[in-house]
Design goal:
140 residues, 3 helices, alpha+beta, Alpha-Beta Plaits, 4 strands
């Protein structure tokens, strides 16, 4: 439970930090002095229900550890939170534990490689989204 709370707090802190880093412009449209960098931002939504069995076969904490280590072998950092996903299969609503992974600064090749490994080892679906993001980590 403490790990979940720590991961949630880290995610919220990351979001708060990043939302505070959005560039402000003056009336001429010029950016202020936040000195933001631009990079790719990827979000992976990893449903933990096995594709063939239709239910979760690997414990959530074990799956989180596997995903974390696979991601860190391809990217320099990740924020992982645990949530619930819901979808229909016919008229039945399926409840699925989902790992939300946010990654800054990776490239398509690294993400494709890690998704292939996750699909292979855990036999679970991975939804990938990519956007361009301006960011700067501001520390005291």
């Amino acid at each position: 439970m403490k790990k979940k709370l720590l991961l949630f707090c880290l995610f919220v802190l990351s979001l708060a930090t990043l939302s505070g880093c959005m560039p402000k412009t003056d009336s001429t449209g010029a950016s202020n002095s936040l000195d933001l960098d631009t990079t790719n931002r990827y979000e992976l939504l990893i449903g933990l229900n096995d594709v063939d069995a239709g239910k979760q076969l690997v414990d959530t904490q074990q799956a989180t550890e596997i995903v974390k280590m696979k991601l860190l072998s391809h990217v320099s950092g990740v924020t992982i939170t645990i949530s619930n996903g819901y979808y229909y299969v016919g008229a039945l609503i399926v409840d699925e534990t989902t790992l939300n992974c946010v990654i800054y600064g990776a490239d398509d090749e690294a993400i494709a490689a890690v998704v292939k490994e996750i699909n292979s080892e855990l036999n679970v679906p991975v939804l990938v989204s990519k956007s361009t993001s301006q960011y700067r980590l501001i520390t005291p």
